[in-house]
Amino acid sequence: MRGDGSELNERKKMILKAIIEAHVREGEPVGSKYLTQNKQIALSSATIRNEMSELEEMGYLEQPHTSAGRVPSEYGYRFYVNSLMQKYRMSQNELLRMNALVKSRLAEVDKLLESATQLAAALTNYTSIAVKPRQSTLTVDRFKAVLLDEGRLMLIMLMSDGTVKTAQIRSEMTLGADMLERLEFVLNSQVCGKRAEEITMPLALAIEKAAAEAESLVSPVLKCICQTLEGGEGESGEVKISGVNHLLEYPEYSDARKFKELLGVLEEKRDILKLVTETETEDGRPRVIIGSENSVEEMQDSALVFQKIRSGGRVIGAIGILGPRRMDYSKVVSTVEYIAENLSELLDGSPELPEGKKPSGNGENS
Amino acid sequence: MRGDGSELNERKKMILKAIIEAHVREGEPVGSKYLTQNKQIALSSATIRNEMSELEEMGYLEQPHTSAGRVPSEYGYRFYVNSLMQKYRMSQNELLRMNALVKSRLAEVDKLLESATQLAAALTNYTSIAVKPRQSTLTVDRFKAVLLDEGRLMLIMLMSDGTVKTAQIRSEMTLGADMLERLEFVLNSQVCGKRAEEITMPLALAIEKAAAEAESLVSPVLKCICQTLEGGEGESGEVKISGVNHLLEYPEYSDARKFKELLGVLEEKRDILKLVTETETEDGRPRVIIGSENSVEEMQDSALVFQKIRSGGRVIGAIGILGPRRMDYSKVVSTVEYIAENLSELLDGSPELPEGKKPSGNGENS
DNA sequence: GTTTAGCACTTGACACGCCGGAGTGCTAAT
DNA sequence: ATTAGCACTCCGGCGTGTCAAGTGCTAAAC
Fold first, then answer.
1. What percent of chain A has a predicted confidence (pLDDT) above 70?
2. Range with the poorest average pLDDT among A165-179, A341-355, B160-174
3. Touching B: A residues 121-180, CB under 8 Å
C-alpha cells in the first residue's frame, strides 16, 4: 500500500477517479447508481458496487456509514494526486488574470506576494496563503541617508537580497547635511554586511565615536537597522492570507467552532510558516499535503497545496492554497504552479526588463 | 419615543439596565425570575413582570416568543447607550497594553493603525476596523531623488499631510547623479502642490522637455507619482481589519452563511469606508451605530462603534469595533475612545517628542 | 468466469407527536 | 402598590415511524 496503484487494474482506477471527481464536485458520498450515469463507465450498479467494495478494502475509499455512498480516503486522494489526476487546462479568462499580475510590475516583493495571494484565492475559490520567511543572513549592502527636513532623516538600506528598505528617523536636534554624510559613511564602513546579532554594544560605541557630531543619531539609527534586519513584520516572517471567506462556501467549514479554530491557526501564522518552510525541497512542482500528512491538528480536514518561490536560486518565500480535503487538486496544483513560476521569473528576470519599453517599479512608505 | 427616557421612572430604568447587562453577559433572553437574583432589584418576579410588560409596550424590550424572556430592542440599546451606560473602568492590564502602543513610537500612520486595530480587537474581543480614507487633496510638498544603483533610483515624496512616501523606479539606461539632480529640480518646480488630476498630458510633455537628459525617466516617474497621489492601496482608501475570528465566539454569528455575508462586506471595504467616513462630525466621542441605524443590509444584526482620528485638526482616519448588537457597549466605547485619543495625540504630538530622549521612527519599503 | 438483476438489510434524514420546563399574563389576596 | 398563585403558551428535546438511498449477497444470465 504505497499509493503506487500497482494493485489496481484500469477499471478500478477509472472508477476511483470518477468517484473522487464526483465527490469533489458534489461534496457528498457517491453511490454506485450515480456512477452508472457516467458514460465512461458502462457497467451496472452491481458491478460497480463490487469494485467499490474492493477499493474500500484496499483503503482507497471509506464509508461514512453502512448505507451511504463512498467517500475517498486520504490514501485515495493521495493516489489520485500522484497518478490519476489530469492536467488542468486554464481558461482564457484565467490566463488573462494571471498575466495581469505579471504586467503589474510591482517591484516590491511584499506587494507582489499580496497581489499573488489575492489572485490565487480568487481563481481557485479557496483560501490562499503566501509566506515570506525572515532570512537570518540578511544584511545591508549599502546605506543612504537623506535629509527630509531639519528634524527628520530617511535611511535607505539596500539589502543583501536585492530589496530596498527605508526607515524614517526623528532627531531632537537640527540636522545638517554634513552630519548625514558622516553618518552614511560610518554606517557604510562599519555596519554593512553585518547580521542583526553582530550589531553589539561595543560596536555601537565604536560607531558613536566615529560618528563625531552625528553621535546622537547613532543609537536610534542602529535600533532601526536591527529592527529591519530582524524581519520587519513578525517574529520570524510574514504571512499573507487572502480569501478566507471562500472556505465558508464549503459545508466542511460550516461548523463555526471548527472554522474558528482553523482561523486561529491562520492568525497565529507561526505554524503555517513552519509547515511551509520546513518542507524539504522537492522537484519544483507544488507540494500537496492532505489531511493528516500535516501535523497541525486543526487542519486535519483540510488540504494544503503550495510551492516555494525562488529568486536567483534562493528560496524567498512560498505561495499556497488551503481548502477542504475535497479540493479540486488538478486546478489548484496548476494554479499554484503557474503563479509560483511567474513570480519566480518576475523576481529573477525583472532586472533584464523583458520588453525593454518604459519600465517602472514602485513601492510605498510612510 | 426619542430615547430620552423621560417616560421612564427610576425603577424602570434600573430594570432595563439590568436586563440589558444580563443579556449582554448571557446572550439569552432574560426572564423576570432571573432578575430577582439581582440584589439591586428587591422586587418579586410578578412586579418585575409588570414593569417588563410596560417596557415592552414602550418599545424598549422585545419578546422572541410568548414564553421566552425579554430581549432589548434596538431602541432599548440606543437608550442604554445614550443614558444608562456607566463609564467602563479599564483594568491595570488593559491600560498597560494601551500604553505599549503609545510607546511603540511607530512613525508610519499605516503601521500605527494596524497595531491599533490589533490591540482594539484583542482588548474587546470583537472585530476591529481601521480606515484611512484617501485624501483627494493630497499633493507632494517636496521631491527627493536618490540613486540606488546605476539601474534604479528611489523617489522620496514628502506629502502635504506630513507623511513620506517612497517609490523605486527602474531605468533601462545608466543613471547618473546629474540626471537625478535635474529630475529632482524639475519635479520640485513643476509637480509640487499638484493633485493627481492636475498632472495632465501637456504638463507631462513640458516636464519632459525641461528634464533634458533625464527625459526618459519622466514618464515612469509621473506614473508612479500619480499612483501614489491616488492613494496607493485601494480605489478610495485603506481598510484594516483585525480579529474577525472573535466574532465566531458569539452565537449570533454561528450561522455560516450569514457570517460569510458579513465577511464579504468587510472584504469589499467600500461600504465600510463610506459608512465610517460619511458620518457627520460629532462631539468627539465615539459614534455608536446599532443594527438598522446602519444601512448595510448584512450588518443589521451587528453594532458598530467608531471614532474619527484627528491629527492637526484634520480627520485622517477612523478606528472602530464591529460586534453583535448585544455588545458590551460600555467597554467598547471606552476602548475606542481611549485608543482614538491616544492615536490623535501620538500623531499630533510626536514631533515635539514627549520625553525628549532618543526618539526613533521607522518605515519599511521594497 | 464475469456480469447483472433482484432482494433483504442497514442507516440517516425527516416529520410527527408528546412531554417538561421556563416564562408570561391575569386575578385575587395582602 | 405589591405579590402569590395559577392557567396558558411555546420552545426544545426525545422517541417513534416512515422514507429513500445505498449496500451486500445470491442466483441467474451471458
1. 90
2. A341-355
3. 144, 146, 148-149, 151-152, 154, 156, 158, 163-172
Predicted local confidence at residue A235, as pLDDT: 53
Q: What is the pLDDT of residue A366?
A: 34
In a domain, B37, yes or no: yes
The answer to whether strand D lies under 7 Å from the CB of residue B50 is: yes
Does residue B126 lie in a domain region?
yes
Give the CATH number, domain containing residue A298: 3.30.450.40
Contact assignment for B165 to A244 by CB distance below 8 Å:
no
* C-alpha to C-alpha distance for A220 and B358, rounded to whole angstroms: 6
**Phi, psi torsion values for B213, nearest 5 degrees:** -65, -20
The closest of A324, A332, A244, A322 to A28, measured between CA atoms, is A324
Q: Specify the number of domains making up chain B.
A: 3
Whether pTM > 0.85 for this model: the answer is no
Q: What is the mean pLDDT of chain B?
A: 85
Residues A338 and A243 in one domain: yes
Residues of chain B with Cβ-Cβ distance to A248 below 8 Å are 256-257, 259-260, 263
Look at residue B102 and tell me if it is in a domain: yes
Output the domain CATH number for residue B189: 3.30.390
> In sequence order, what are the residues at sequence separation of 6 or more whose Cβ sits closer than 8 angstroms to the Cβ of residue A57?
none
What φ, ψ does residue A321 adopt, rounded to 5°?
Answer: -125, 135
CATH number of residue A58's parent domain: 1.10.10.10
d(CA B241, CA B320) in angstroms, rounded, equals 10
* CA–CA dist B182, B176 (Å, integer): 10
**Are A66 and A156 in the same domain?**
no
* B247 and B200 in a common domain: no
Q: Among B252, B324, B340, which Cα is nearest to B77's?
A: B324
- At B360 the pLDDT is 40
pLDDT tens-place string over residues A280-325: 666 778 999 999 988 888 899 999 999 998 887 778 889 999 999 9
**Per-residue model confidence as pLDDT tens digits over A236-270:** 577 889 999 899 999 988 888 888 889 888 877 77
Which nucleotide is closest to A49, CA to C1'? D23
Question: Phi/psi of residue A145, each to 5°?
Answer: -115, 130
Report percent pLDDT > 70 for chain B. 90
Q: Is residue B335, in this structure, part of any structural domain at all?
A: yes
Q: Which range marks the domain in which residue A41 is found? A: 10-84
Instruction: Give yes or no for B220 touching A (CB within 8 A).
Output: yes
Whether B126 and B242 share a structural domain: yes
| Length B71 CA → C23 C1' (Å) | 13
Residue at a domain's end among A229, A249, A276: A229
Q: From the C1' of C6, which residue's alpha carbon is nearest?
A: A46
